[in-house]
Amino acid sequence: MSQTANQVFGIISIKGGVGKTTTVVALGAVLAQEFNKKVLLIDANFSAPNLGLHLGCVNPEYTVHHVMHNKAKPQQAIYETEFGFHIMPGALIYKKINPYKLKNRIESLKKLYDIIILDSSPTLNEEILTTMIASDKLFVVTTPDHVTLSTTLRAVVLAKQKKTEIDGIIINKVHKKSFELTLEEIEDAAGCKVLAVIPHELHFLESLSMNTPSTLHSLTESTVEYSKLAAAMIGEEYEDPRFKSRLLGLFSKDPRKQEMNRIIFKDTQLN
Length: 271
Ligand SMILES: Nc1ncnc2c1ncn2[C@@H]1O[C@H](COP(=O)(O)OP(=O)(O)OP(=O)(O)O)[C@@H](O)[C@H]1O
Ligand SMILES: [Mg+2]
What we know:
This protein is an alpha/beta fold. Helices cover 40% and strands 15% of the residues. Bound molecules: adenosine-5'-triphosphate and magnesium ion. Adenosine-5'-triphosphate binds at residues 13, 16-22, 45, 48, 50, 122, 172-173, 198, 200-201, 204-205, 208, 222.
């Protein structure tokens, strides 16, 4: 049983295309289906919303934009998906938003959901601020290259300035090549812990083409890593179902760094 209170998790980056929405959808599916949580995903990428598109929800009648402009009640803009979680998608027509409003507008929803996940905009303006302000815990997605890392560092600094510090880094699209930045290099530069390392896998593109969360598409290394991350986020245990990993785990004296970080993070979630 989880002992964590209902929480809002924000997934941010200051670079587009790093995998924020993919991560939000994957975590949503895992939390709903494996951990039986009541989950709501909200598109807080106001100028270029794409959460609905990832899931085949196009042109919804009411959206987060309506909610932000008091044109709809939050419940009116929530849609049930076939994957066990609910979503509040965005509208393709963008009107300027007040970044301080989302936190207040979704307050009543915290009673209805175990977990709310915000899919942030990568734009370094009031849009990303919205997610920073409205989240209880904040995670930044980066890829292991110096160009993306430089934007990740800006996110870390901004979060510090706004007193909404980053709780963990998710490294995505990892090819396991020697030219990529290592976990340690990323942690040293950013000054925060890496909680998940997601490999680059072709099945992400296939699942996107089918409007299906990657974690429901097939059991791969990324699927297991997302499940472990989700477990840590809610202070629960997760056991890798793959026989080979369990066997390796029995003999390994050197657990991977992100495993250790997750154990520490999980404990902070329970306190
Ligand atoms: N680990 C991965 N391996 C391979 N492809 C991936 C991986 N993660 C994400 N992708 C692909 O990268 C593309 C961009 O992902 P996504 O839309 O989640 O990025 P984003 O950060 O939300 O972008 P934006 O800032 O534009 O909203 C998608 O085609 C997605 O399927
Ligand atoms: Mg996105």
